[in-house]
Amino acid sequence: MPTASLRLTPVPPFDFYITISSHGWVVLAPNALDKEEPSFRRVEQLPGGEVVCLEVWADGPQVRLKVESEGALTGAHKNLLRRRVAHMLRLDDDYSSFYRIARKRGKPWSRLVQGLGRMFRSPTVWEDAVKTMLTTNIAWGGTKRMAATLVEEWGAPFPPDLSQKAFPSPQAIAAVPFKRFEARAGLGYRAPYVHELARRITGGELDLQAWLDPAIPSENLYRQLLAVKGIGPYAAANLLMLLGRYDRLGFDTVYRDFVGPRYFNGRQPSEREMLAVYDDWGEWKYLAYWFEMYLEDMA
DNA sequence: TTCCAGGGGTAGA
DNA sequence: TCTACCCATGGA
Length: 299
Fold this sequence. Notes:
By secondary structure, the protein is α+β, with helices and mostly antiparallel strands. It contains 13 helices and seven strands. The strands form two sheets. Strands 1-5-4-3-2 form a five-stranded antiparallel sheet. Strands 6-7 form a two-stranded antiparallel ribbon. Strand 2 (32-34) and strand 3 (39-45) form a beta hairpin. The protein binds a DNA duplex through residues 24, 132-133, 135-143, 145-146, 186-191, 193, 229-235, 238, 250, 252-255, 257.
């Protein structure tokens, strides 16, 4: 089987393990984490339909990428896979202004400058949008189950090992009659939201990749996200984070349970008060919240 | 059995 | 803008 070996160079500082374990996405299908290496694998479908398997790990300051494919990869395919992995790991992002605030604040915030801040994400906004919908009003185990079902039912299989599959495309979901999708996906009340999103994308009504355009003002983008059925304030804030906008926080049970006891000492604060905790971080609010939680977990 | 989980849509005020 | 109420699903 043809195997290509590719390399990527992140903007320093970079920490591979912290990046892939920055949140739970790395264990949601089709991602598979190997904690020991550490590395992760996932199956990807290329524009021509070919399905390949990636393995990604760190080699010193670089990121290495092994691609297994049935046929030899073209240069364009290699470049596309490099871009997808760079997107997932946010290798080209610059966190220097985030780190400046962290340094000024001293401990424990100064620990962030060792390469914390990159939030692992999916190669496409579509996958991130669906997975975000799968985190609403459900325990994490349910989210994992639902992602695995979508991949197993409608993901394109990797020919040498048909049990390994890619995340289903919007086309693959939209092609399934809704009743069948609802019955087999096990998404509960989320089924119509995911199916409608797939249909709006394949119908040309929505272009989710366009949401990555940094020229769109955050507030405008937030409104666009809320206009999608199944995306409310929590999901929109989570997606803004995944799109590289950190100026808005989502209020959910995780936020409430972390910030409440930590900053309000037994008092019952309002949602507005709780969300104001990270106001000083300006465009970096979400990362300040998230990695404060991460630092506490490491301690 | 009941509760509730990294909420969201809708109707009605 | 705010509040009830309902929404599937499965684990505790």
